């Protein structure tokens, strides 16, 4: 009898933990918004990645430009952050590391962009 009780209690406990984890993940995905990503690009990238002389033809000064990529093609692949050239450059998995000749972005900012790509590069916050 006691053993059954413990089993039931354990099952309920692990189910509630799993539900809490799923909620955390869902929150993370909606948190990664284009607004925040574009702020990171404005501060760190658009000096070299905007208008005509943009490095490698890659402009990071508008949503459509980021999705369009540069002369070598796409730099963000929906749902595949670590296969995306932009993340490889930020992490130093692909050289030269970005931002070019400057301090790497803090891990929390790279993580935000990773989650934004993972979520399929949402442009606006989905309505509640
Ligand atoms: C000081 C100028 C400069 C800054 C600032 C800069 N970049 Fe770059 N970026 C370059 C240059 C130059 C290249 C081309 C290097 C190469 O691959 O030969 C490049 C290439 C890239 C590429 C590769 C494009 C492709 O098609 O292969 C990506 C992605 C990129 N940058 C993203 C960023 C991001 C994101 C930031 C901001 C966090 C940033 N860059 C900041 C100069 C800069």
TrEMBL record:
Gene3D superfamilies assigned: Cytochrome c-like domain
Key words, A-Z: Heme, Iron, Metal-binding, Signal
Aminoacyl-tRNA synthetase listed as a keyword: no
Signal peptide segment: 1-22
Residue stretches making up the Cytochrome c domain: 32-121
Pfam families named in the record: PSCyt1
Keyword Coiled coil belongs to the record: no
InterPro entries (UniProt xref): Cyt_c-like_dom (IPR009056), Cyt_c-like_dom_sf (IPR036909), Cyt_c_Planctomycete-type (IPR011429)
Protein name, entry field: C-type cytochrome domain-containing protein
Species this protein is from: Seohaeicola saemankumensis
